[in-house]
Each structure stands twice: as structure tokens, then as C-alpha cells.
Amino acid sequence: xxxxxxxxxxxxxxxxxxxxxxxxxxxxxxxxxxxxxxxxxxxxxxxxxxxxxxxxxxxxxxxxxxxxxxxxxxxxxxxxxxxxxxxxxxxxxxxxxxxxxxxxx
Length: 105
Description:
Helices cover 71% and strands 4% of the residues. It is built from 3 helices and 2 strands; from the N terminus they run αααββ.
């Protein structure tokens, strides 16, 4: 008897979950329908302009980071050296610690 009651309870519970998720989805679709078309078109246009500007900035940059991979072994060594120097000059990195007014950084 308890197995039958458990099965019925399980069926009622799963049907409740399906209807609540369907109702929330319908509410979401209704929210999307309420948005004015001009707002969405403006948003898409601004996003397109941002993408085009980012593309132009990437194409027009003179110096790009290639880490020496296109220049062979000596280029890779140079890139490693530059990265090590940048880390060494960083105040929290390895190397000499700088002091300012008695405070060690």
C-alpha cells in the first residue's frame, strides 16, 4: 500500500515541477515580447560598433605580443629575458626589495 502511495506522490510532485518551470519560461518569453523593438535594435547596433572598433584597434596595433615564437630560438630567449626583467622590476616580485620611508615593500 505504501508503494502505491509513494508512486502517486512522486507523480504529483514531478507534474508540479514541470508546470512551474513551464510557467516561468512563459513569463520569460512574455518579458522578451514586452521589450520595444527600437531598444533591441539600438543595443544590437551599439554592440556591432563596439566589435568593429575592437577589430580596428587590433589590426592597427604596431606592436603585438608574439613571445618570440616567430623569430626562432634567439627571439624566444629575448622574450623570456624581457618577461623576467618585468617580473624582477615588479615591487612584489623576486629581486631587490625597495624601501620607502622605512617601509619595506
